[in-house]
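I'd like us to work through together how a protein chain folds, taking it slowly. To get us started, please write out a protein record for me. Go ahead whenever you are ready, and we will take it from there:
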Amino acid sequence: YSDTAGTTSYLRLDKARSTEAGGDGAKEVDDNHILGVVQFRGHDGSGANTFIPGADIIARVNGSTDTNVLPCDLEFWTNDGGAAPEQRMTISEDGNVGIGTASPDGVLNIEKAADGCYMYIDTYDATEADTSNLYFRKSHNNTTATLTATPSNTIHGNIVWQGVRSSSPAFVDAAKISVKQEEGAGNSYVA
């Protein structure tokens, strides 16, 4: 109980390499060590104490550790009806989010191995003006949430389609739509 806004309850899971709790024998964790797991289980009805994991949240070290350095991923696992959960989403140590991949290549990386990868932005509203929107926004500043006017001839965003050529085992651009600001504020065109 507290009247102070910053005082709260919390759950803390600690991990050290050691054969004893606390003390000077504790050593730093290594790459790929699991720091903690929150697991959600349900009884499958087949007998006493037959609980099946339905979902996990796992904190895992991802990289070299040092004094005050602990790179860590947060993994989300779900069970699609099998005996154990599978990894579905990762927030990497650098803040990138991967859905369907444990190693996201960008801020948001969505992968699907089969059946296609579909993303939907749905709007259910009887008002004609209320629609689904996808915004690409650019401020000419390297500081988050600092708005600075974008100069002329600035590319505001790209939509890129890529494929893999038989001669190169890497993604290459097949088509691209770019939106570039013209001379004068507020005027844009598709390049």
